[in-house]
Amino acid sequence: xxxxxxxxxxxAHEQSLDPxxxxxxxxxxxxxxxxxxxxxxxxxxxxxxxxxxxxxxxGWQRLETAIVTANDLELSRL
Length: 78
Description:
The structure is a single chain. The chain has helices at 2-30, 36-52, 56-72. The protein starts with a helix and ends in a 6-residue tail after the last helix. It contains three helices and no strands. It is an all-alpha fold and 78 residues long.
């Protein structure tokens, strides 16, 4: 019973984050190349949501890429 409850909780949790993930992906697609700060903020937010949704590998990769890119561009703050 407890396992089923955990499974149902996970399903509900993932479904509630799907719209946020979709919006983040759409925002990244709509961002122009010259808007690097906006792209990095969006990528970092999307990465965090992905991690929270349990999509660890994809989320951490987005976060790491955003951090490395910000450092490469010498941006002090996202």
